[in-house]
Amino acid sequence: MTTYFVSDIHGQNQAFQQALRTASFSPERNDQLFVLGDMIDRGPESKEVLQGLLAMQQAFPGEIILLKGNHEQMLEDWLLRRGNPENYLRFNGGDATIRSFLGNHPLRRVFIGSMPSEQAQDEARQFILTRYPELLPALASLPLYVELPANPQTGAPAVLLVHAGIRPGIPLQEQSPEDLLWIREPFYLYYGGERPIVFGHTPVPKLPGYEGNGPWSRNHLVGIDGGAAYRRGVMLIEWPSLQSFLVPIQDVHSSPQVRLHGP
User: Fold this and answer.
1) Among the listed residues 212, 176, 61, the one whose alpha carbon sits nearest the alpha carbon of residue 53
2) How far apart are CA 144 and CA 90, in angstroms?
3) Considering the entire predicted model, what is its pTM?
4) Count of CB atoms situated within 10 Å of the CB of 44
5) Measured between alpha carbons, how far is 98 from 103 in angstroms, rounded to an integer?
6) CA angle at 52 for the pair 51 and 57, rounded to the nearest 5°
7) For 13-65, what is each residue's pLDDT tens digit?
8) Distance set, CA 151 to CA 23, 67, 221, 248 (Å)
9) What is the pLDDT of residue 255?
10) Cis omega before residue 116 (within 30°)?
């Protein structure tokens, strides 16, 4: 049994599947996969990523664990007519996800290039919620964090998995959902706790002092967002070795780069 972490797939299904194949991931052999949110938006196959992972989770509930990212929250809000639709659709790549779920529906072209009318959005919501009735309950049920206990057999320490991070100095149970989904610098610049935390949300090249092609690691923090949202790559991490499998978006058929990083 091997444990893997991945975050911020952002609709890049081909690269994600290539990473799983390269790592020989197999839930049938009790391998575990923890997905730290942002499965959707920006990339072309958000429906395939999300629906595929939900199907895998249904088949292997103990092996596939999905967390909520800020993009799943924005999709949930859009489906429920909450939040700022223009912020989601135009500035956070939500239009790509709506097109993915619309498929060949004529409404698809309305979600290309310009802001759709409220009527078009309502028609798209109705179509998606009718065709995919499991979607909204699945989004609403995603946890905001997971606490993994230590594993004496593998030597893995206890670790907190979260999409964006936590606000230092506040107990975990009192953290706000907004911080867990959106926080950046106040977390990774000032966290001084002893508990290891693995997070996504901020692409590793944007984290301080980052070099190489693997995860970012500093002061009990491990960043694993490979930058798929910006066409860099999908990064799969083996835990606790931090061996990484990075599949570049621009060339998903090539062999991923494999790097071994110490804790």
Assistant:
1) 61
2) 25
3) 0.93
4) 15
5) 9
6) 95
7) 999 999 999 999 999 999 999 999 999 999 999 999 999 999 999 999 999 99
8) 21, 21, 18, 31
9) 36
10) no
Average of per-residue pLDDT values in the chain: 94
Q: Are strands 32-35 and 257-259 parallel, antiparallel or unpaired?
A: unpaired
- The residue whose two tokens read 């901020």 is 202
Q: Which two tokens stand for residue 173?
A: 């149970």
Strand duo 145-148 + 159-162: pairing: antiparallel
**Nearest C-alpha neighbor of 218 from the set 203, 234, 239, 197:** 197
Is 38 in contact with 7 (CB distance < 8 Å)? yes
Give just the sign of the alpha carbon dihedral 53, 55, 56, 62: positive
Residues contacting residue 217 through CB under 8 Å, at least 6 positions apart? 223, 242, 261, 262, 263
DSSP percent split of the chain into helix, strand, coil, nearest 5: 40, 15, 45
**What are the Cα distances from residue 68, in Å, to 1, 71, 74, 255?**
24, 8, 10, 29
Instruction: Count CB atoms within 10 A of the CB of residue 186.
Output: 14
Q: Which amino acid is at 229?
A: A
- 166 Cβ contact partners less than 8 Å away, ≥ 6 residues apart: 160, 172, 175, 179, 180, 183, 187, 191, 197
